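The following block was generated as part of the benchmark described in Methods. Ligand: BIS(adenosine)-5'-tetraphosphate.
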Amino acid sequence: MIPETVGSLIAQKYKSAKENDHLHFIETESKAIKDNDSGMNFVISYTPSLLKKPERADAQKDGTDPFEKPEPELTILEDLNEDGQFKLLLNKFPVIANHTLLVTKEFKHQNTALTPPELMVAYKLLCTLDKTESKRHMVFYNSGPQSGSSQDHKHLQMLALPEDFVPFQDNLCAGKPHFLPDFKTEPLQDDKVSFAHYVLPMPEDSDSVDEDLMAMCYISLLQRALTFFQDWTNEKPNMEKSYNFLLTKKWICLIPRSRTQAESLEIGFNAVGYAGLVLVKKEDVFQKITEKPELINDVLLECGFPNTAGTKPTEYHY
Ligand code: B4P
């Protein structure tokens, strides 16, 4: 059972860790913009201090696992669900307050698929926090080397969405009941958005959500992403599968990824970029995309795969 007080436990731990310099809050200058072509809303956060932070390759070089024996000052709960499977930690380098990490107690690799208990504990954590903190939260999972991940010990992340922020997935799912895709029905995809994304509305009644339902949703979305990786096996036989997983109480979403960083513009994304929360480390890039928001849709495509809305699956699809 996740304690009902988890929200206040996170806030207390965050306050003391910040006051005592156990975490490094990254100051950002943020701007809300809209791309009228795709209809996507964005919050662009400019943070030059992150230029000094090591990239994935450098972070892995020393071979240490920061989640194996996490700092006590960043550990919110040693056993989140009282089942010996997950610990809840504070992110040491947050851009948003109270950004937490849901980490497996035993080492599992970040490339492994999410299991039904992992999906369920993430969903329950979301429900508890949305109820007690009067804010909307989002869970995300960056899996594979092109997904934007930097740590290999399996971890999901959770943060509060900015107030009044409407991710495009909200509009896509508005008024639509929960369903599972089948041979005739594809997951939702917004044809104005450049990149492939697979979305399902979640049931309104959170009590009807169980491990089986979570697993069916996740697997049906992952299947669509696998088709892209299959198509690429001739061209890039060693390509490792990468994708972003995003979950709110309203919807579940999966984005297949082809690269971490764009080439046309110095910008990279993890999962939150594909909900519209974009982190920029260079001033000229910040200027360019705030002046011309449609550029973001181009670079999101460069780091993903083309939208497949309206394409019927064939016998060669997963
Ligand atoms: P990963 O899945 O491996 O990687 P990531 O979130 O893309 O973060 P990355 O480390 O690549 O940093 P980036 O500059 O892109 O997650 C690893 C997580 O573990 C990260 O949250 C990391 O900070 C954390 N961590 C590393 N060492 C730790 C330690 N010793 N103890 C506890 N936690 C540790 O982004 C910087 C930060 O901003 C990340 O937290 C990222 O999630 C967040 N972020 C990125 N875009 C954002 C946006 N638009 N809005 C809000 N936050 C955003």
